[in-house]
Every structure is written in structure tokens, then in C-alpha cells.
Amino acid sequence: MQTRNEKFVFGLLPVIGLLSIWEGVARFGLLPASVLLPPFSDVLLELYSLSINGVLGTHFLSSLVRVLVGFILGAAAGIIFGITMGWNKVADKALNPIFSLLYPIPTLGWIPLLMLWVGINEMLPITLIFICSFFPILYNTITGVKGVNKDFINVAKCLGASDSKVLFSIVIPLALPNIFTGLRLEAGMAWRVIIAAEMVAIPSGIGALLMKAESLIRIDIILVCLIILAVMCLLFEKFFQYLEIRMTYKWRQYAIHHP
Amino acid sequence: MPSITLKNIQNRVYENLNLKVRDKEFLVVLGPNGSGKSTLLNVIAGLSKYQGTVRFDDRAIDHQPARKRGVGYLFQDLALFPHLDVASNIAYGLKIRKLPKGQVEDRVRELLELVHVTHLESRYPESLSGGEKQRVALARALAASTQILLLDEPMSSLDEQTADLIKIELKQIQRRLGVTTLYVTHDIEEAVTLGDRLAILLDGNIEQVDEPERVLFYPTNKKVADFIGAPNILDCSECNSERGGVMRVDCSILKLTVPHDGNAIHKIAILPRDIYISDSKPKGPGINCFLMNIENIVPLTDRVRIYLRLENTKLLAELPHPIFDSMDLSIGKEAYATLRMKKIRILENNWD
């Protein structure tokens, strides 16, 4: 068995390899148009100077706040609606047709409409992140709640549990793995959507910085932005993975180790 | 402990079902799969809709939801809450009743001891063996109620050895606590071992409620007889007392030795499963052993029925599948049938 540290190191090796190749290829001008790929070390230097002069910090913070606010609101709404629809047949029948019509619309497709309705301000990206987080988390939560074995519910009732007790002590805990799947996937997706929104419609944030760098042909800055984006997607996904394990590992460890 | 009375129960499974489980009784509901056994428990627990009346003693509980009926219910797949450890599973019903913490802990410990799983207290259900899960589920059901216990084919997922052990313990616990128990199964053997009385449920109708012996030897109608495997009943023409408390009885062509001394015997009965079948001559003195023709072989889900004939005397025997498969038996061949002497029943004169 590999230890966790060993696994981490082995996972890092290919990345280090790729970065070395990048550095070498760019440094020694092995590419025909070498101006299009600055060496990795130059990109790191640029990351440093952008951090020092505060440009990166400002843009990053605006993106981060938008993602956090939009995602937290969207996730909360998705979980609340999901639990309600999964648990209550009437709510499910009433809301499901509406949501299934709205769900297929790509998040970025809302931009023109929202620009007119909301205006070009902070609420625009937040609303977009809300929409992008809401639907997948909603459907994962519904699946999780509906998927709870009816016997568990019946046993709890026979043991004297009221409907709300059954919901909070049995159904929601057992739906957690599904809810977390939704959260994990959408935490990364929120970053992808915010970048796109900022590139198209908002004059601040990492996406806007990307567009500015493109117009100045500053490939090093573009690469800095993309690296930050990649790291943030990964961090957000890993955070929810960690949270899921923290909250469900005790009772699922046997299944995880004896698949 | 309360008695349970079901009166004129009607729903999509039952046309009109009546049944009474006596105070402190262990009643086994026996029927094939799909006969409506589980629904019967769900009606009592308040998990299935029905018309009619369910009473605990003389208290009608039809308007009470499941959570207020206070019955312990052991489900077929046990349904232990996977996210709670063993102690919390058992404590679940106690905590809902808002018992003080110390009292909950004491009761959980008592129940853990009762079913011998104290050492599993902090384990999670996924890591338990079938037998361990069974015990925990039983403790949890008893935590809810020591008045009424409903069990839905709880042994179906266990290996035979574990099931036998748990059956013995279950029966002991039931006796000790005196809890009124309704146990559902399709397994005749299990029903006979466990039940104070059996209720035969076929196609949503209770066909017979009786002590196990009575059901086996005196099935009330053809349906019950077909399901149980009707006993072989033989007319006896002549009988002679012999030494050692046995009698020689002539049942047409079969000359049998029967443990009995006293009055003349007119009819005897033996259950199909108490006839040994063998493709070669069994060792030993060969008491009550006859070479007979195999007329028909009918496989059932859990056993094989073999119809035997010697001149005009017919016998029905039953074998478990593995034993049948280990022998070379087929229609038209001959086989040795041994009627186990101790299992031969002398029927009362008025049997018809």
C-alpha cells in the first residue's frame, strides 16, 4: 500500500515533468514561434509581480467573491428545493415540469437576458453562478432523497419517528453522498462559468484580466490566469471531497475499502 | 402483553381476512411467496392501507399512524440504518421517546446483552456479518416494543447454521419476554420449529390456524394439504402387539412396525418428509423399508416431491434438492422408501 504522501508525490511527478519540458522548450527556442510560449519561470515571475502590484489580487478577489456568493446561494437553494421535491410528491409534481424546461438552457445563454434584466453589475455574475450551481445540485439532491430505501423510512416510523424526524435523522444523512457529488462537480463548474462571464460581460475579475492580456498580447499574463483558474477549480473540488469524507467516512469506510 | 385481532381486513391483497394472535403467543404465518404475508405485518404496523379493524387487546388502532402503534418490526432485509453505529441503531427509538440519556444507555446495554452483541456496540452495520445484523435488528425492534413483535422472513438471508442458532435464541427471548409475536415465513420446517400455532395464508386467505402438528396431520382442505404436502394416510387391516412396545400393522401390501401398545390401529399417517428415499438398499435391519416404483417426480422451490407406488398402495415423499440431486432417481425406476418408525402417527378413529 502506498502512503498518502507517496501517492501525492507520484501524482506530482508528471506535472513537474510537463513543466520542465515546457521550460526547456521555451527557454531554448525549440518552437517555431517561440514568442507565443514564454518559459514557465517567466510566467511565475509575472505571477509574482502581478501579486505584488495588487492587480492580480483585485481581480482574483472580485472573481472569488462572485463565485462564493453565487455558489453558496445556488447550492443552498438547490439543496432546499431538492429535499422538498424529493420528499414531497406534490412539490415534485408542481415544480419538476418548470425546472426540467429551464435546466437544459446553457448557463451562458442567460447572459443577454440577464444583462437587460439585472444590468451590468455584480449581480450579473452572481446570478449566473447561482443558475449554474442550482440545477445540478437540485437534481443530485432529488436523486439522493428519492433513492433512500423505503424500508429505512418504514423502520423509523415504526420506531416512533415523526415525518420531520425521519427526514432529518434518516433521509438527509443518507442522501449526503449524492448531495456532495452535486456540490463537488459544481464547485469547479462555478469557476469555469465565472471566467466565461467575465470575459464576455464584466469588466473586472480573472476573466476580464484574461481578455485585457489578450488584447496586449501578454501571453505570460494569460498563462498566469489559466494557472489560477486550474488551481481554484481543483481546490474547490477537493474541498468538497474532503468535506464529504469527513461527514460520511465513518459509515461508508467499509464499503469504500471492500467494494 | 396484548392480543392482536384482525377483523374483516380488506385491501388489494385480502378480500376479507380474520385472524387472532393470542396474548404472549408465537404465531407463525406460513404461506408461499406472493400469498400476502408481508402485507399482513404492514397492516398491523400501520404501513399498508386497509379497511376493517385491527385491535390490540380491545383497543382499535386503525386511526393511529405507524409511529404511534408501538410495534417492534423486523424487516426482511433488516434495514439497519447504515449511517448509525450499532448502539445508535438500537437507541434510535428510545431517543425519539425522549427518555433520559442514562435510561437510554442502560436499555441499550440490556438489549445488546440480550442478543449477545455487546462487543459490536460501536461498529457500523456494513461491517457486520448476516447473523450479527440479525441480532442488532432484533434488539432494535425490541427497543421499540416488548409488547408486539413482527418478523418478516428474518432468516432468509442467513446460512442454515446461523439461522438455526438464531431461531433457538429468538424462541428463548420470546418466551422470556412473553412478547406477542407474529412471524412470517414460507419455510414449513422453520414454521413448525418456531410456532406455538401456525396460520396458513394462501392467496390472501387464512385457510387454517392450528398447532403445528394439527396443521401437518389434519390440513383442513385440499389447498392446505397441497401446500404442506399432505400426509400419507394408510388404512390398517390387521395389527398384532409385539414385544418392546411395538405393533406389527398390515396396511394393505405394506407391513409396518409401529411404536404403540394397546388398542387396535385403524389408520396411520406419515408426513412426506419423514419418508427416506434411497436409490440403493439402506444398511441396517430394514425396518419399514420397501422397494417401490417412482410414479412421478415434482420439483418445488425448496424440495422435490416423489410419488411412489407398490401395487395399489401409494406414498408421497419429499426430499431436499441437494439430496435428490445426489441420487439417481427418475420416473419408472425403483427406489427404497423407509418410513421412519418414530414419525409414524396413529390417527384417531374418527379421522376421515
Overview of this structure, please?
The complex is a heterodimer of chains A (259) and B (352). Chain A contains 10 helices and no strands. Chain A is an all-alpha fold. In chain A, α8 (163-200) packs parallel to α9 (206-215). Chain A is flat, with a radius of gyration of 23 Å. The two termini of chain A are 16 Å apart. Chain B has helices spanning 37-45, 66-69, 86-96, 101-114, 130-144, 160-177, 188-194, 212-217, 222-228, 321-325; strands spanning 4-10, 17-21, 26-30, 51-56, 59-60, 72-74, 148-152, 180-185, 197-202, 205-210, 232-235, 238-242, 246-251, 254-259, 267-270, 275-278, 289-299, 303-310, 313-320, 334-339, 345-346. In chain B, the strands form 5 sheets. A 6-stranded mixed beta sheet of chain B has the order 6-7-8-3-9-10, sandwiched between helices. In chain B, strands 16-20-17-18-19 form a 5-stranded antiparallel beta sheet. In chain B, a hairpin with a 2-residue loop joins β4 (51-56) and β5. In chain B, α3 (86-96) crosses α4, α3 (86-96) packs parallel to α5 and α4 crosses α5. Chain A binds chain B through residues 149, 151-152, 154-162, 165, 169-170, 173-174, 248, 250-255, and chain B through 45-47, 65-73, 75, 77, 79, 81-85, 92-93, 96-97, 124-127, 140, 143-144.
